[in-house]
Amino acid sequence: MWIVVPGLLLALLGWRSSATVQEDKAIEAFYRMWMGSSVKGAAAYASHYAADGQILPPNAPPIAGREAIAGWFERAQSESRFVSKPEGINVDEIRFISPTWVVHRSTLRGQRVPKAGGDPFAFETKYFDLLHRSDNGQWEVAYRMWSDNRPQ
């Protein structure tokens, strides 16, 4: 019995690591699709959130629901004093809490260019996302929180 169990355990661990690689790729594909949707407008961007998804912006109350998130996204873009020019993103962690829940941490770096003119400056923003696999098997954002590592 003791000889069979370790062999079975190793086989299961090998399968899990293979499944994790496939799931990591699915998460990466979801992020490419989600981030690419922002050029299609706020509603397209917000469609990647769960119906009751929330964003937790810095120094602001939570925003809940796709429609409210889309509205916030439009306001944030129009009211921002800067245009962000991303230069790279680092995925810091993908942690499966269960087959249907994932923590995704990342850091985005780039330049912010003042809309009123002036010199661009570096930014670095860290993101914490809680993703959920919906009943249709697609990933969606349940919660997103972020903060800048460098002052503006």
What's the structural blueprint in terms of helices and strands?
Elements: H1 4-37, H2 42-46, E1 49-56, E2 63-64, H3 66-79, E3 82-98, E4 101-114, E5 121-133, E6 139-148
Parallel strand pairs: 1-6
Antiparallel strand pairs: 1-2, 3-4, 4-5, 5-6
Fold and architecture overview:
With 152 residues, the protein is α+β, with helices and mostly antiparallel strands. The protein has a single domain (4-148), classed as Nuclear Transport Factor 2, Chain: A, CATH 3.10.450. Helix content is 35%, strand content 42%. It is built from three helices and six strands; from the N terminus they run ααββαββββ. Strands 2-1-6-5-4-3 form a six-stranded mixed beta sheet, with helices on one face. The radius of gyration is 19 Å and the shape is globular. It starts with a helix and ends with a strand.
Short description:
This protein is of the alpha+beta class. Helix content is 35%, strand content 42%.
Structural class estimated from helices and strands = alpha+beta
- Distance between the amino and carboxyl termini: 62 Å
Beta strands, count: 6
Task: Compute the number of structural domains.
Answer: 1
